[in-house]
């Protein structure tokens, strides 16, 4: 039984709290949030206690800290948890600054802590199966990955301001999946972008429609396209082409019902957002983290290093978009 | 080069004339029709000559007669063509009376003529492939065939009066496919029906919505459902379940284009009627007939016997519907 | 909070216990089973108490009894629970004897108890949506329902002996769905069957491959086909054709991953059996029962009457198969 | 009736000759080829005459010249045909040199000739429908086009040497489709490439795996990916995302037959190459050219200008790949 302290009672904290509460190997012990009312409400729902971040770090009856606080707190909370001997599961990103991530990983390394980063899509049953079958050799050597990822609705322009921009805030998930699927490091990044959905996003210096091409040293290519808005739901597709075939994973409709009439055949809309689409992924992610804690695995998937590499690629994409030039990644 | 005389310049005569005219191994020599203007128009389109049915039968430069006249003339025209040494391709049915079919087949047998019946669906590339893969053993022993067949629009009640009823006029195609797919003779037929689409059809003593179950001596089952009207187009599906798996063939949409928006994912309507849906089937049917003529094959698929058996089953279905009792077929 | 006593700790008792334990409005209070070890194991898993059936019936801290015992006990346990003022959710069938069902429903009626029968498929999100859209008028007047239902593996012939036969044991689910979808009572039943999967099933006087056609007084038709074995998984499909269109619900694959290579495009197998396929259905079923209990709804869906009608139709199908004649249903 | 002189009796010349021969508004009058035997064989098949290129240009009974000769001859043959008052349908590309294309278009402009370039995919019924529905506004303002295009088998490295490279030889079709779908000019091109399929292609200075991102002045993006080899057939897919929805067109399988067994659900391979996949497109292309000739339309789709723009973009992609830098297009 792994006893969790959850930091953050916002949208993602709620997701993780629910997942922890329904996992027979996990116990939701404490919840902390800067807004006490939010922490209280969530704690009451699952029979957990409310306390401060500091107390979670020091609590003897906490084995693992789940960090779902705002991005700006991630690095220091990872370090504090590591220094207090806790295992850590932290939402992406560790930090918007690569140097901060590197400093944090050094602390984690020194303490030999288990740290896992919340790239939840690796745990989607469909994408996990796709990756597993690549690794089994079903399509031979990977040549090209294509990822299409669109959110149903754009965030307010206000949000965008502090988000780090579309490449660091949204595409970083896809960049991680590209690394996961292709299995090699990308060394060059080309990006294009435009504010076609909401001019206000453009006025904040960000874009809402973006594409990235990346290439590895051996020549493998990943192509990612993003939009902040898809009228048809949360578009999450990927395919990987290799020497012996191609593996693809498509969207999931709300139900399997189809209406056939003079207008054609109409399937249901696809699942609308991440709570539905990735509900099972969050549960599997937690299982994977618990297994890492139980076995003392200090290099889970996705690891702190995966978090670092994804951030470097997101930075490179941002720079490429801003400068109009490809950017090399060390 | 097989030289054809076509009898009938109506809807189906036009289909066959076009198919013959574009087949490099066939020549459309003559067309006959009770309405000379129809024959003239069709002949002019393809550079054929108009003549009488009698002259087609006797013409030395005719190798094969394609019979697309009204059902009432089929039997005597088959016999005449057979007696004149022609190969014969005849639209279904040979006759609405089993005894007439039997008499006709005796003539064909005596003259050792090649006779093929126009169950065009056997030549649809999809259904032909499905049958071929059953015969190759892909699904092991056949256990059950399911055929769903719906026309886009009901015929006028006036037409129904002389059609022989839905089982003989429409379902006979599906009954033939059931025999083709299952590969055994059915010995009992259960039918249900109702006039749900058009009351006027019911008033003519026919139904427009019907289902049939048939069983072979070894226990294999076929289930067929029909409607005279499907708002979504010409519904033509079948599947066969066996000991090792199931083979299915679905409908064909007008294009592969799909629209994805807040209402869902909308595919095009399916192909609307037999000219589109079975265009390739008619071309393949002709090739098969030509091959039979060239090789002197007197037992093509579908043969006169296939026509006879389908008619017996359609009669049995009609009787079962009318009496509310299952009917045995010899 | 509805407090449950669960009778039966076998396969279906485990399903319901898990569902009750994870429902925030339900409490799994007691479990009873003729085999104490089974009850103990299940109770330990969810923190429930083990007791006798009699004690469950009398317990003041039990609001509802969930009956998952062998079929032979259902009727008396429903009556006992009803006489003790409990709400009842009972697995299908109430009894293999219509007269016993009728006697049981009279007790339920007299006591004004809430009784719901476990036709879980009504609660599958796909089929529930399909039915809901029929009722909203999306396809106009219903004309024909087609249900294809195949189990992945046949039961041992030993099981078949006491099962009541395929129509009462397996097809009864589909018969209930046909009533649910069509929305009218069927008055005549035609059945065919054969033991094609396992001869031993035939030797027990049952069949493993079956089809049924049923018709309502207004002419609407339902066609159901069953097999006790499908190599490709748990085949659960249905479609309803109406005056304005057709609604269909297809199978669900294990994942959305597809492999494309020289052999074609290969999708995953479909979900293999009812625990996966209907996991959500069981949860929704429980919610629906709880809502009925909370609101005092004595006519939930599916009601005791629904259980009675399905049994009558299953009996009629059995008789039709055995006699080779259609059977009328009052 | 438009009388055609066909130049080139190779693979593409055969396609066009067949299409012309079966079009009721076209007459295949003459065929010319540097290898007289090839011309003779093709001419015999369709009852055409063999003559020289010069004679086709001057023939009074030729209305239109269809140029299917090697790329190096296209420009001069277009000019000769134009100077002789013929309408011209020319396979892509007009020339590998933009300056030569421009010079050729000046001649065509001066003579007011009808010139159409053979980007056959614009006439594929699926892609044509997709484009037509974009223009009707079904998806609102276009934001991003995604084109995936893979050939079944790589050409010999020998061929690659004189092909102009993958961007000019293969991707030029996709570049034209991107312009067609997006409806604006692209002003910047990013390309990546690698020889992952066949090292020998890399040794010839070309690549066999490539991706391109392009952007218009208004910010719209097109992403194209190519491979010279797909084990699963001729992969031809595209989708366009817009403010109100997304339109997609998928691959076409050989038949609709699907096999369901313990391994999953297996659909047929997709159509293997351009003769099958684009057979209808070639027929529609010819109809469109004939309509342009009949109406004197000097700006058909795709026009000489479309050929010029596609070549500029293919050149830019080649340069981007070779230099590792984005390339601007005037």
Share of helical residues of chain A: 40-55%
- Rg of chain A, nearest Å: 20 Å
Strand proportion of chain A, as a percent range, falls in: 25-35%
Domain module count of chain A? 2
Total strands of chain A: 15
Please tally the helical runs of chain A, counting DSSP H or I stretches of 4 or more residues. Answer: 13
Compressed to H and E, one letter per element, the order of chain A equals: EHEHEHEHEHEHEHHHEHEEEEEEHHHE
In round numbers, the mean pLDDT of chain A is 97
CATH fold annotation of the largest domain in chain A = Dihydrodipicolinate Reductase, domain 2
Name the strands of the widest sheet of chain A in spatial order: 12-11-7-10-9-8-15
Q: Shape of chain A from CA axes?
A: globular
Greatest chain-chain interface? B-C, 38 and 38 residues
